[in-house]
Amino acid sequence: MTSLFDLISVNPFWVWAAIGALLLALEVSTGSGWLLWPAASAAAVAVMTLVLGDVVWIGQVGLFAALTIATTLLAQKLWPARPAADAHDINDNVARLMGHHGRAVADFQGRDGRVFVDGKEWAAELDDDALLKAGDPVEVIGLSGARLRVRPSR
Helices 12-30 and 57-78: crossing angle, nearest 10°? Predict the structure, then answer.
């Protein structure tokens, strides 16, 4: 155990760099956003030990703790909040069609049919028991799996 402490005291830069790399790897694998700041703080302490040379361990740990707290609080203030789980995903090309208008491609068979919305043809289902003929205007009101839920447009 003594040789481990000797190794750490002789190579503080590499110890802090390893701690920072480990924290960064955990952050990348989890994507939580909380481990990024301790990883950056460990990197800052590693650079500090490289520049200043001999700094007592309690000072290094204290600086790491202070930097971690400061950067986490600052990031919480300045970093944009994560969207709620039910928030609209800008990359979801189907969900963005909500409220768009289009036309029925062919007569609907019961509640099932196809519509042309936003330059593409989509499988669709009627939200109510209305009858849709080819060319009738529709409005997208929801999603049902990969199918658009539509109603006749008013």
Answer: 30
Q: Are 116 and 105 in contact (CB under 8 A)?
A: yes
Q: What is the largest CA-CA distance in the chain?
A: 84
Within 10 angstroms of residue 55's Cβ, the number of other Cβ atoms is 14
pLDDT of residue 41 exceeding 90, the answer is yes
On whether the CB atoms of residues 64 and 86 are closer than 8 A, the answer is no
| Tokens 């800008």 sit on residue | 90
The label of the residue with tokens 């936003």 reads: 118
Q: Pairing state of beta strands 147-152 and 120-126?
A: parallel
pLDDT, tens digit (0-9, with 9 covering 90-100), for 76-111: 888 776 666 565 666 666 677 888 999 999 999 888
Q: Which two tokens stand for residue 52?
A: 């200043």
- Judged by DSSP in three states, 55 sits in coil
For residues 58 and 61, give the distance between their C-alpha atoms in angstroms, rounded to a whole number.
5
Q: State the residue for tokens 């955990």.
A: 26
**What pLDDT is recorded for position 86?**
60
